[in-house]
């Protein structure tokens, strides 16, 4: 019940439709029961020849139903009841399912908007498959609540109660008997609910985990095939498959008791009622019309309660899905200010940071001047990427201060930070949209000319001109048909359009052929001109052309200064330079095959 209230909180805009759907479903049940009354009234002349039935059973209707046109009237009333029942069912479905689909569409949009506002650092803590499961599977689990589950469950609880109320009015003794069997069945249902909740949650969690693992498997299918792995050798996937199987079985077993118990109790109550009716009828303690009405009520109104046992289990799973949706919605964006930076000078001032217990950076201080390159170098795991991520405020430092243009990052809005920084990384993300739409992600109002200019500067004008529909060519499968270099250059074209004053460049693991590499480097050289560039450097030329090099080791700055100065004195930088040919991750571009492109024409500053 609490879960339903929580859902109603989320479904504020659909509340009226929801209430309408529930009311219509109850009305449908009542209209479905009307023929029972018509049958009894139509049979009154036979059941009550002495005309001893209570006044409420007689009245104008019996006259119509016992007169000359009785069969026709009975048929007409039946049809009317069926029509009303149909209308109520239609309205319930229209209102309920409509509300369900509206709710889930709105909830998905809200979740996506919410995820987009969360810092990347928070999102990185969760598996992307896990988030996909929440947005897709868990929200889908809520879809059927307004249309199916909620109205059915409410109707199933209301109709038997109405039936018992009617029975109490007809014959209190029998009414009490029905009330007792209803109470007992409800008690069994509630007791079974206890265990059902945990099992449903386990089932729901197992399904979510399986989804995550399957997504991982499909995404990594190339590796799976390359290593000839069967799914069985991916331990966590196998565990997830087993957990899904076991939880499904456990849930079904949980059903067994209420599925057998509830109908059995209700059937027992009805049987007892029939026996007692049979005993009391001949003595005249109970009129024949009332007796028939009681029997029909008992048979008709308890049926929904029986079928609801299954719905209760679905409600529990809905509750678990709702919990996961709420957990994501409860993740909070970082608090921020709305200050405006004065320029694009970056300052790290005594910054320390760690993931939980794991300290990653210790008292890092440096400044990156506008129009220059600052190269971060160091062994793997030294903390270079962490510095770049702190700059985009994926996380806040535990101590110290990071500022852009003299303003602490915490005082800048996420939109301002996003507008200030353009990131070039090896994992280029393109969408299955047209080239035009992909470019306009960076600047929605970009003109055709601006787009071609950006493509030219990114050295991919020809690539796009040769596509079948040029700018309107859709990059199917997120641009999978493009080469690595083409993808890179399209991403760089996007950054030309974005025109942010700071560029963060992660050179790691570039694996482009010489021609592509040359074009990408030329594009980057032009992109970096006049901006503040922070580069995670893996190539000697980038370092050589930087205004300053920050050498990191185990999260600390070991050395910093201009490359020329650092090269001239013994120290970590010189050691790294000398180890160039052997150190993993560092690459020398062979001048004979491709001239070493330079980010800078004049060392240290952009032209
Ligand atoms: N989410 C995380 N939780 C715990 N430790 C992490 C996390 N992310 C990174 N680290 C650790 O922080 C340290 C610094 O990582 P970082 O990625 O910044 O190094 P790097 O210098 O960029 O390395 P590389 O050159 O290999 O990319 C590493 O030891 C890494 O294991």
What does this protein structure show overall?
The structure is a single chain. It is elongated and about 120 Å long. The protein contains 23 helices and ten strands. The protein has two domains: 2-329, ABC transporter type 1, transmembrane domain (ABC transporter transmembrane region fold, Up-down Bundle), CATH 1.20.1560; 346-578, P-loop containing nucleotide triphosphate hydrolases (Rossmann fold, 3-Layer(aba) Sandwich). The strands form two sheets. Strands 6-7-8-3-9-10 form a six-stranded mixed sheet, sandwiched between helices. Residues 583-607 have low confidence and may be disordered. The two termini are 68 Å apart. It is of the alpha/beta class and 607 residues long. The protein has helices spanning 2-10, 15-42, 44-47, 60-66, 70-117, 120-124, 128-170, 172-219, 221-226, 235-280, 288-301, 303-330, 384-391, 414-420, 435-440, 448-457, 461-465, 476-479, 484-498, 514-528, 540-545, 563-568, 572-578; strands at residues 346-355, 358-368, 373-378, 399-404, 407-408, 421-424, 502-506, 532-536, 548-553, 556-561. Residues 355, 358, 360, 378, 380-386, 508 line the site of adenosine-5'-triphosphate.
């Amino acid at each position: 019940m609490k879960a339903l209230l929580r859902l109603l909180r989320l479904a504020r805009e659909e509340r009226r439709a929801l209430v309408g759907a529930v009311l219509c479903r109850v009305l449908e049940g009542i209209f479905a029961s009307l023929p029972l009354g018509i049958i009894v009234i139509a049979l009154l002349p036979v059941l009550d020849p002495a005309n001893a039935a209570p006044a409420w059973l007689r009245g104008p209707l019996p006259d119509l139903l016992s007169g000359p046109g009785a069969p026709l009237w009975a048929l007409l009333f039946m049809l009317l009841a069926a029509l009303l029942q149909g209308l109520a069912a239609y309205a319930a479905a229209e209102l309920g399912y409509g509300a369900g689909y509206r709710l889930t569409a709105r909830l998905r949009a809200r979740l996506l908007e919410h995820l987009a506002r969360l810092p990347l650092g928070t999102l990185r803590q969760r598996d992307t498959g896990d988030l996909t499961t929440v947005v897709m599977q868990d929200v889908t689990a809520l879809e059927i609540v307004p249309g199916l589950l909620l109205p059915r469950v409410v109707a199933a609880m209301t109709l038997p109660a109405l039936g018992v109320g009617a029975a109490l009015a007809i014959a209190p003794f029998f009414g009490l008997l029905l009330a007792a069997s209803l109470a007992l069945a409800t008690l069994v249902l509630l007791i079974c609910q206890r265990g059902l909740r945990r099992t449903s949650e386990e089932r729901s969690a197992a399904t979510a985990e399986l989804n995550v693992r399957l997504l991982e498997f499909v995404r990594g299918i190339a590796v799976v095939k390359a290593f000839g792995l069967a799914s069985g050798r991916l331990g966590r996937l196998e565990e997830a498959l087993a957990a899904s199987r076991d939880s499904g079985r456990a849930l079904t077993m949980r059903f067994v008791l209420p599925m057998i118990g509830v109908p059995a109790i209700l059937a027992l109550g009805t049987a007892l009622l029939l026996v007692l009716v049979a005993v009391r009828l001949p003595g005249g303690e109970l009129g024949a019309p009332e007796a028939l009405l009681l029997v029909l009520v008992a048979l008709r109104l308890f049926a929904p309660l029986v079928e609801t046992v299954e719905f209760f289990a679905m409600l529990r799973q809905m509750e678990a899905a709702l919990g996961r949706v709420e957990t994501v919605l409860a993740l909070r964006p970082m608090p921020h200010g709305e200050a405006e930076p004065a320029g694009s000078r970056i300052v790290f001032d005594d910054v320390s940071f760690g993931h939980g217990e794991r300290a990653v950076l210790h008292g890092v201080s440096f400044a990156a001047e506008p129009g220059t390159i600052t190269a971060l170098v160091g062994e793997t795991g030294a903390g270079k990427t962490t510095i770049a991520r702190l700059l985009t405020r994926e996380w806040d430092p535990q101590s110290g201060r990071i500022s852009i243009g003299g303003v602490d990052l915490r005082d800048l809005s996420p939109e301002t930070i996003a507008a200030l920084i353009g990131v070039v990384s090896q994992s280029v993300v393109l969408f299955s949209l047209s080239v035009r739409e992909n470019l306009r992600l960076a600047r929605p109002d970009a003109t055709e000319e601006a787009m071609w200019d950006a493509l030219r500067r990114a050295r991919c004008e020809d690539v796009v001109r040769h596509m079948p529909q040029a700018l309107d060519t859709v990059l199917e499968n997120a641009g999978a048909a493009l080469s690595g270099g083409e993808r890179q250059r399209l991403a760089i074209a996007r950054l030309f359009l974005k025109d942010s004053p700071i560029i963060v460049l992660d050179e790691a693991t570039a694996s482009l052929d010489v021609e592509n590499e040359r074009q990408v480097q030329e594009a980057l050289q032009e992109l970096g001109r006049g901006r503040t560039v922070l580069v995670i450097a893996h190539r000697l030329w980038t370092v050589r052309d930087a205004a300053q090099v920050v050498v990191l080791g185990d999260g600390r700055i070991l050395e910093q200064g201009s490359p020329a100065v650092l090269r001239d004195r013994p120290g970590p930088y010189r050691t790294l330079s000398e180890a160039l040919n052997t150190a993993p991750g560092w690459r020398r571009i062979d001048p004979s095959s491709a001239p070493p492109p330079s980010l800078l024409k004049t060392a240290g500053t952009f032209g």
